[in-house]
Hints:
The structure holds 2 protein chains of 2 kinds.
Chain A: H1 4-20, H2 39-52, H3 101-112, H4 116-123, H5 133-138, H6 155-164, H7 171-177
Helix pairs in contact in A: 2-3, 2-6, 2-7, 6-7
Chain B: H1 2-22, H2 27-35, H3 55-58, E1 69-74, E2 94-98, E3 104-108, E4 114-118, E5 129-135, E6 143-147
Antiparallel strand pairs in B: 1-4, 2-3, 2-5, 5-6
Amino acid sequence: MNKRPLAAILxxxxxxxxxxxxxxxxxxxxxxxxxxxxxxxxxxxxxxxERRCGTLDCHGHAARPLRLYGQYGLRRPEERTSMNVENYDxxxxxxxxPTTIVELEDxxxxxxxxxxxxxxxxxxxxxxxxxxxxxxxARLREKHKGGLLWNKGDPGDVCxxxxxTGNTDTTQCEVELGHP
Amino acid sequence: MKTAxxxxxxxxxxxxxxxxxxxxxxRAVDERIALLGEEDPNVPVGEFHRPGQPCVxxxxxxxxxxxxxxxxxxxxxxxTKTPEEKPLPVKGAKVKLTDSFxxxxxxxxxxAGNFFIETGKWDPAFPIRAExxxxxxGALESTKRVVMSTRISRDGSCAGCHxxxxxxxxxGYVFCAEAQTxxxxxxxxxxxxxxxK
Lengths: 180, 197
C-alpha cells in the first residue's frame, strides 16, 4: 500500500479548505442585485402575496418556505412593549393593525431568500422571470398545493413580475387586490 | 446460493413486518390529533361532538373517520376575549362556500354550531371563498351576511386556523358579529348535547 498519494491528497484538501476559510464562520454578507426594499412600493406587492399566498393554512405559517406575515394572516411575534407595533390590542391575525414595516421587511427577505442567485439574474434581466419557483408555482407551471393563483399576464402575475424585474409600477397590484 | 437467498428473503420479511408494525403514520398529524384530547362524555360521537375542533384532521384522507369531510367547522356568535369565556354557538347559520371553479355549496349549522360537508357530496377545488348568513337576533326571518376576509387555501377545517381567542397566529373562533348584539343572540338550546344545563 503506497501511502504517499493519500497523504498528498489529504494535504491538498487541507490547504484548499484553509484557503477557502472554513475556519471563519463570521457573518456572511453576500450582496446581490435585487429589487431594493422600498416600503412604499413593496407594500402593494406584499399585500397581494399576503392575500393570495399568506393565509394561515398556507404560507402564513412559520414552518413553511416563503413564510409571509400580514394583517390577515400570521403576525410577526411581538411583545406588548415592541416599538414595531402601534396598536397592540389590534395586533392579531385579522386585527385592525396594518402589516407593519418590519413585517414587510421580513416578507421582502422571505421572497428574495428563496432563490437569491436566480432572483438576481431576473432583476438584471439575465434570465426570464419563469426561472423562479415563486413565479412558476403561482402560474401552476409546477406542482403547487395551493393550486393556480393566476395565469401569466394576469394582474397578480404582472404585479409580482414587475417588482422582481425592477419595475415600480404597482397598478396591477391594486387591480389584483380589487378582486374578491 | 440458496442460503443467501433465504437470508435475503428473511431479512426482507423482517423489514416489511417491522414497517407494518411501526405503521406509516404522519407524526405531525398524530400529535395534533392527540392534542385534541378525549371526547366529552356528555356528547355522543356524532354531528354535535367536538365543536370548535379541526374536523378534517380525523374526518379527512389521513384517518378516514366516517363521514369523510371536505370542509367542516363551528360557527359562534361573537369572539371571546378570555380563555375562560365559553363561545356561544349559533344554530341555523348558513355557510356558503365557492370554490376556485365557481362551484357553490351551502350548508347549515346545528345546535352545537357545527356544520360539515361530506367529500362525496362536494369536493371543492381550493382556494375557497367563504361567507356566513346568520339569523339576526330578535328580527324574524331577517339575516345578515359576513364574508371571510381571506380565502381558504387548503385546510378544510375551520379550526385549523380559527382557534380560541384571537392571537398573532389565529383570528379566533369563526364568529358572526364583532360583539354581542342588542337584542342578544339566544342561548344554546339546553337540549343540545353538550350544552350547559
